[in-house]
């Protein structure tokens, strides 16, 4: 029943076959591609529908969410939609006072730093389940509009989300968060477990409503050593991925500057590893032992170069990705807001035309 109601009609999508490591070799294989932050300020149609409404308010308006999620699929012909939401939406739905300040990012009115702050975190009971209703409705509308194009659901990983909560907003080094886990590991564990529970249920709601794959974003995890990651963070990210591991969806795990953590992040329960542009994709595949499907990792800088450099990078990424059992092309990080949308549309067309020739059979 889940399969019929949820991932209706998308399970044969080439993108999902890549994620499952079922790539068919040969010249007919077309590349699958989507871009992190493909929705958003690079698109004039996004800026238009977002006029007069705050980021987080827009995340609980199902028609708007569906429209924004579908916009880049319509325009660029990418092979997946990424659910329009944000990593702090579960915290907002749980009742925390958070806003997204334009040009800055998520800001929490009351940073969570002490035992009393953690004691006061809202419970995640029936009220939270009810608060997820607009998320479920948004996914249903989006999936209906996307048809045979898969929807990727997502949430933030406990370290990245907790770092906004502890620091109160964006920070460079996440020092307070990293100090908390060393100084008061039992408090850190309580905070990270709360985030994992909220994010895991937000993610599960997306899959049950029809998302065909999930991505766990641990954008700031690169500031941790592997030792600290394994001691304090891995178990909490594993809890989030565990919230959907009984469902038949690929689980992608992505961090920025996290080349040294690929193996550990895979151990958290991912079935696909994202790579940023700081590592050569074939090196990432080797670091994972050669058997793990990958996603990545065109340097976003080539969105601002001439076409020759851009297409050379795209071809190199395709060739390197061919060493994995599956490869979905993406950028090494999100689309910068100042990107010319036509550059992305042309890049998708180039990747779709080139892939078979690059993988060569
Ligand atoms: O008003 C606006 O348009 C604000 C810009 C914006 C958008 C479009 C923010 C604020 N969030 C989003 C949507 C969003 N956020 C998506 C869905 C759209 C898509 O990808 O096409 C996703 C997947 C996210 C995830 C997200 N939010 C991450 C992880 C991915 C990444 O880029 O590393 C992070 C770290 C955030 C926090 C956040 N939200 C918004 C901003 C500007 C930031 C980063 C702030 C910082 O630098 O610390």
Ordered list of secondary-structure elements with their pairings:
Blueprint: H1 2-5, H2 14-19, E1 32-33, H3 44-49, H4 55-58, H5 62-76, E2 81-82, H6 89-94, E3 98-101, E4 105-108, H7 115-119, H8 126-131, H9 133-146, E5 151-156, H10 158-167, H11 175-183, H12 185-208, E6 213-218, H13 226-242, E7 251-255, H14 262-267, E8 272-274, H15 281-287, E9 294-298, H16 307-321, E10 327-331, H17 341-359
Bound molecules: coproporphyrinogen I.
Give the structure's gist in a few sentences:
This protein is an alpha/beta fold. It has 17 helices and ten strands. Mean pLDDT is 95; it is low at 1-6.
The coarse silhouette is: globular
Order of helices and strands: HHEHHHEHEEHHHEHHHEHEHEHEHEH
| CATH topological fold name | TIM Barrel
How many domain units?
1
Which architecture name does CATH use? Alpha-Beta Barrel
H/I helix tally = 17
How far from one another are the termini?
Answer: 37 Å
The main β sheet shows up as: 8 strands, parallel
EC number: 4.1.1.37
Catalytic activity: uroporphyrinogen III + 4 H(+) = coproporphyrinogen III + 4 CO2
Keywords: Cytoplasm, Decarboxylase, Lyase, Porphyrin biosynthesis
Pathway: Porphyrin-containing compound metabolism; protoporphyrin-IX biosynthesis; coproporphyrinogen-III from 5-aminolevulinate: step 4/4
